[in-house]
Amino acid sequence: LKERLPSIGSRSVPYTGGDVKKSGELGKMFDIPVFDNPPSLKPSRPSSSSQHNSGSVRSGPNSGPMGTRPSHSGSIPKKSSGPVVPLQPTGLITSGPLGSSVGRRSGQLGQTGQLEQSGSMGKVVYGSAVTVLGEDLRLGFRVSKAVMWVVAVVVVMGLVVGAFLTVAVKKVVILVAVAAVAAPMVVLLTWNCAWKKRGLLGFLTRYPDAELRGAVDGQYVKVTGVVTCGSIPLESSFQKVQRCVYASTELYEYRGWGGKSANPKHSFFSWGCRHSEKFVADFYISDFQSGLRALVKAGYGAKVAPFVKPTKVADITKENRELSPSFLRWLADRSLSSDERVMRLKEGYIKEGSTVSVMGVVRRHDNVLMIVPPSDPVSTGCQWARCLLPTYVEGLILTCDESQNADVIPV
After folding, report:
1. Are the C-beta atoms of 286 and 226 separated by less than 8 Å?
2. Which one, of 245, 232, 347, lies nearest residue 286 by Cα?
3. 357-377: b or e for each residue (b if 16 or more CB lie within 10 Å)?
4. What tens digit of pLDDT does each residue of 319-332 get?
5. Residue 49: CB atoms within 10 Å
6. 378 vs 397, which has greater pLDDT?
7. CA separation, residue 55 to residues 4, 39, 50 (Å)
8. Distance (Å, rounded) from C-alpha 225 to C-alpha 285?
9. Are 372 and 361 in contact (CB under 8 A)?
10. Which of 68, 90, 123, 317 could form a disulfide linkage to 333, CB 3.0–4.6 angstroms apart?
């Protein structure tokens, strides 16, 4: 016997002509409200005599259209496959900490770092995938504390002994000799404190670029190339510059004689930082030397030292305060007072397509090339020609040209 093809329905579906009222199932599929529903047809219960005498009932399930075969023309339940996350314009997917696998990072699609709009306020809040940086960079001298204490004790003892001999012998020559020996040390220390950051920038500029093609795992390299946003692009808070890999907004206040201080370290007649917002996330960099693309792990709380010079956005005084409603709105979103203070707003960012230099450690994990922050601070070494002591900096180093807007490459 030939197998009978399975039937799709027990009876033919009448043509409705596109009228939703004649087909309730069509309205359920497309969530169309139907107000005039037709009365439901309730089949009458057959009597016991008809059940015994009806041939269609006594026959098998394939004996006719009135058989008790299952029907597939019922309502179609709606299934939800979850929110569909669109792919970024760059086509690159990155997320997750360094310890997780690559498949897990690509599957998460940065759900923990999506942007969140905070209620009635216009301030954008990022998730844990975006690193929030502090106000100042941690720069220090690579000199042991024991040596510094020994030098300080010797200088103090020399001054005390010189003063005692001056009083006893009544000759100022001894005190002058001791001061002449201690003066160069003080000048050297003052010079290093003033030129510490500039000397570090010179060291970073002179550091040679490496090729990612020949870099081995664990090697400290400097890579220069074009940056591309990862799964979480950033945005500057005031100018709303989109698709950035690094964004900072800083509010400074000028303190005159007897004015209010912006921070505990704010001195008189100077500008002090009152509020700071600095964010950085994972991004890609395409090496100019080898053409390879590497993932820079700057998010998830990584230590990052950005050297990006901010630009002045607005100067707010008592006269022009009411002429800038956007600035007043920016202050209100952050619960900052807008009293009669002289304020200055600065913003710095690294936009997608900018040329950036990154200094970090190469890591190769599951055929993925990454640049991660070093575990130990990086020292510049003694710069004898510039009379600079060894200076160290912690974390991943990011440097960008000042004229970044003119060098942006469309990506």
Report:
1. yes
2. 245
3. bbbbbbbeeeeebbbbbbeeb
4. 787 777 888 899 88
5. 8
6. 397
7. 22, 30, 9
8. 6
9. yes
10. 123
Q: Residue 217: what are its φ and ψ, rounded to 5°?
A: -65, 130
Q: Has this prediction a pTM greater than 0.90?
A: no
At residue 38, φ and ψ (nearest 5 deg) are -70, 150
CB atoms within 10 A of CB 249: 22
- For 210-220, b where at least 16 C-beta lie within 10 A, e where not — what string? bebeebeeeee
Strand 304-307 to 396-400 pairing? parallel
What the block records as the tokens of 279 is 């964010």
Kindly report the number of other CB atoms within 10 A of residue 24's CB atom.
15
The chain-wide mean pLDDT, for the chain, equals 74
Surface-to-core class of residue 222, CB atoms within 10 Å of its CB (0-12 exposed, 13-18 middle, 19+ buried):
middle
What does the angle CA 336 – CA 337 – CA 338 come to, to the nearest 5 degrees?
A: 120
Q: State the burial class of residue 393 (Cβ atoms within 10 Å of its Cβ: 0-12, 13-18, 19+).
A: buried
**Mean pLDDT of all residues in 225-254:** 93
Exposure string for 145-161, b = 16+ CB within 10 A, e = fewer: eeeeeeeeeeeeebeee
Tokens coding 129: 């995938």
- Longest Cα–Cα distance of the chain, Å, equals 142
> What distance in Å separates the CA atoms of residue 171 and residue 187, rounded to the nearest whole number?
26
